[in-house]
Amino acid sequence: MLENAPIRLPKVLREGDEAAAIDILHEYFTHQVDKTGHIRTGARWDAWDPSGRRAADAYVFTTDDLLAVTLLSVQVPAQGAWLLLGERRDEMAARLTDVGPDRDLAEEHVPMTAESPAWQLENALREIHGIGRTIASKLIARKRPRLYPIYDEVVGRQLGTKSAHLEPIRLALRHDDGALHHRLLDLRDRASLDDSVPALRVLDVLAWMQGKGYVAKP
């Protein structure tokens, strides 16, 4: 239990139901079709690299990134894509450089404020036509999956982070010598997921599936 937590943990984590948490992860990542018959493309998000250039392109947004976010059910409109890949490409590359390499958010000792490079990158992305808070977070998470948490209304509602998402999650992951961070990685390993799935993604999936009404198998 994370006492005095800056976020509200998903129910399975609050109740310490490890088996249910693992079941949710299995359901999301291994069952490609959900209970409504829709293909769950988000399960392919973490390791998806069709061009084989994801690592080489870590400091520039590419067409692969625009396609990747569609796996999470969002789409950058044509005008926004044109700006992101064209007129503002170099600016965004410079901002990604300022953010630095991918690393665990739990290891970030300095608070994530409006002056932080990652926050400034989000704000710059949101200036582009058709890119709001959710799409911006998914674009950054595509480039820095261990550092930047995905946001959407479902996850924000479940975690209680609709007003502020990045810094509360950082604080939660660092609390008690990183207990939550290590717990999320342990659940990933016990669910036999690839290490391309970071702790942030485990938290995201548990919150999102709970918000969508999935009930773990008894």
Describe the protein in words.
The mean pLDDT is 94. This protein has one domain. The chain is mainly α and 218 residues long. The protein is globular and about 50 Å long. It is 51% helix and 0% strand. It contains ten helices and no strands. It starts with 10 loop residues before the first helix and ends in a 7-residue tail after the last helix. The protein has helices at 11-14, 18-30, 63-70, 78-87, 89-99, 117-126, 133-143, 153-159, 166-190, 199-211.
Q: Helical segment tally?
A: 10
Structural class: mainly alpha
Distance between the termini: 21 Å
What string gives the helices and strands in order? HHHHHHHHHH
Helix content: 40-55%
Mean pLDDT: 94
Query: What's the number of domains?
Result: 1
User: How would you characterize the largest beta sheet?
Assistant: none
Strand content: under 5%
Kindly provide the radius of gyration, computed on alpha-carbon positions and rounded to a whole number of angstroms: 17 Å
Summarize the structure.
The protein has 218 residues and is an all-alpha fold. The protein has helices at residues 11-14, 18-30, 63-70, 78-87, 89-99, 117-126, 133-143, 153-159, 166-190, 199-211.
Spell out the blueprint of helices and strands:
Layout: H1 11-14, H2 18-30, H3 63-70, H4 78-87, H5 89-99, H6 117-126, H7 133-143, H8 153-159, H9 166-190, H10 199-211
Helix pairs in contact: 2-10, 3-7, 4-5, 5-6, 6-7, 8-10, 9-10
